[in-house]
């Protein structure tokens, strides 16, 4: 699903790299995009939905278009896929492939290789709430933060399963006492059941500060939907910017998954051959790993790292290649 803008440029690069890595997949492309939405008023047609729901994995570009201001489009594509396929874990790794890409100057603190594990199906994203006395000066708008015992427990459990060094649970339990109280209780229960995994808690503001101060201290950060959205843009910038950040939206029980670069459609640069394909290519590597071929994922990641270090990459990370030349540079390393 390339969808819109930059997504249309980066997904073909990711597929090119997958083929070069020897991935024996059948791809099917769906024309879910803003043009179709403007034409039909339907975000995902029913027959397409059935095929998407049955796919082994979805490789996703980016959704959104300046011509579509209607929030139902975004909700009907990306949020619908996350919610209805119950992809409750959103994995957003941040790994520094080349020192020069870090904005941090202290060498001993630059070694970033962490994972934001974002709850992906509830929180402030569920769309509960409303606007009362709309359009008047007394208008009230509410947006409910929905946290369930099951939802919070399962994401924290997955964090404990995934962590190599430590799980840091991030919330805002000093100010948001109801939601924060539930996160605290679920976290303590899961921690007690996993005594071998180190763990600690940070409030989200302190976590933002610590991420800039010394990102090398972190392994897995588990947090709610909105905090995970915000912190993962911060961590993307720590390792070179939005152009290279990948993500995986998965359900570890059903095995379903959707894999997308963290960046959006980049309307300002889309269509000019300038967008960085690395975020999409690393998302494809996460997909391959999820599908049970970790060696191929490692090979793709290694090829990406080596291309970045040789500055065979797009301008945003210090090279001078176009989108497809940057894809070719990675393909070439896979074949060597
Ligand atoms: C992301 C994006 C989405 C989100 C938007 C497009 C709804 O920012 O994947 O991080 O907030 O989840
Ligand atoms: Mn985001």
CATH topology of the largest domain: the name is: Isopropylmalate Dehydrogenase
**Coarse morphology:** globular
Which structural class do the helices and strands define?
alpha/beta
The top-level CATH class of the largest domain is Alpha Beta
Strand content: 5-15%
In the CATH classification, which architecture of the largest domain applies?
A: 3-Layer(aba) Sandwich
Distance between the termini: 30 Å
- What is the chain-wise order of helices and strands? HHHEHEEEEHEHEHEHEEHHH
Backbone CA Rg = 20 Å
Summarize the main sheet: 8 strands, mixed
Give the full name of the CATH homologous superfamily of the largest domain. Isopropylmalate Dehydrogenase
Helix content: 40-55%
**In DSSP terms, counting alpha (H) and pi (I) runs of 4 or more, how many helices?**
11
Query: Which ligands occur here?
Result: 3-isopropylmalic acid, manganese (II) ion
Contiguous uncertain segments of 5+ residues: none
Strand order of the largest sheet: 1-10-9-2-3-8-6-7
Summarize model confidence as the mean pLDDT: 96
Number of domains: 2
Number of strands: 10
What's the structural blueprint in terms of helices and strands?
Layout: H1 6-20, H2 34-40, H3 46-54, E1 58-59, H4 71-84, E2 89-95, E3 113-119, E4 129-132, E5 140-143, H5 149-162, E6 166-171, H6 177-193, E7 198-203, H7 204-213, E8 220-223, H8 225-238, E9 246-250, E10 257-261, H9 278-290, H10 294-309, H11 323-335
Parallel strand pairs: 1-10, 3-8, 6-7, 6-8
Antiparallel strand pairs: 2-3, 2-9, 4-5, 9-10
Helix pairs in contact: 1-9, 1-11, 5-6, 7-8, 9-10, 10-11
The structure holds 3-isopropylmalic acid and manganese (II) ion.
3-isopropylmalic acid binds next to helix 4.
């Amino acid at each position: 699903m390339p969808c819109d803008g930059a997504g249309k440029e980066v997904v073909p690069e990711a597929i090119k790299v997958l083929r070069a890595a020897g991935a024996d997949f059948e791809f099917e492309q769906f024309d879910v995009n803003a043009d179709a939405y403007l034409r039909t008023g339907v975000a995902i047609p029913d027959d397409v939905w059935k095929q998407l729901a049955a796919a082994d994995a979805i490789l996703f570009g980016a959704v959104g278009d300046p011509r579509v201001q209607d929030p139902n489009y975004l909700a009907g594509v990306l949020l619908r896929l996350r919610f209805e396929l119950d992809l409750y874990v959103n994995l957003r790794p941040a790994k520094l492939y080349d020192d020069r890409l870090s904005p941090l100057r202290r060498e001993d603190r630059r070694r970033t290789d962490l994972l934001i594990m974002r709850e992906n199906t509830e929180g402030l994203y569920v769309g509960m709430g409303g606007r009362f006395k709309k359009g008047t000066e007394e208008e009230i708008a509410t947006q409910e933060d929905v946290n369930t015992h099951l939802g919070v427990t399962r994401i924290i459990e997955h964090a404990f399963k995934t962590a190599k060094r430590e799980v840091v649970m991030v919330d805002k339990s000093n100010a948001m006492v109801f939601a924060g109280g539930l996160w605290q209780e679920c976290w303590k229960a899961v921690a007690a059941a996993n005594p071998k995994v180190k763990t600690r808690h940070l409030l989200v503001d302190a976590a933002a500060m610590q991420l800039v101060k010394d990102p090398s201290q972190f392994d897995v950060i588990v947090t709610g939907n909105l905090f995970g959205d915000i912190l993962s843009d911060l961590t993307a910038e720590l390792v070179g910017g939005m152009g290279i950040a990948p993500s995986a939206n998965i359900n570890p029980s059903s095995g379903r998954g959707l894999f997308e670069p963290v960046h959006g459609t980049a309307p300002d640069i889309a269509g000019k051959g300038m967008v960085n394909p690395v975020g999409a290519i690393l998302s494809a590597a996460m997909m391959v790993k999820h599908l049970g071929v970790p060696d191929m994922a490692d090979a793709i990641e290694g090829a990406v790292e080596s291309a970045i270090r040789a500055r065979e990459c797009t301008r945003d990370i210090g090279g001078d290649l176009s989108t497809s030349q940057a894809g070719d540079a990675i393909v070439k390393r896979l074949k060597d």
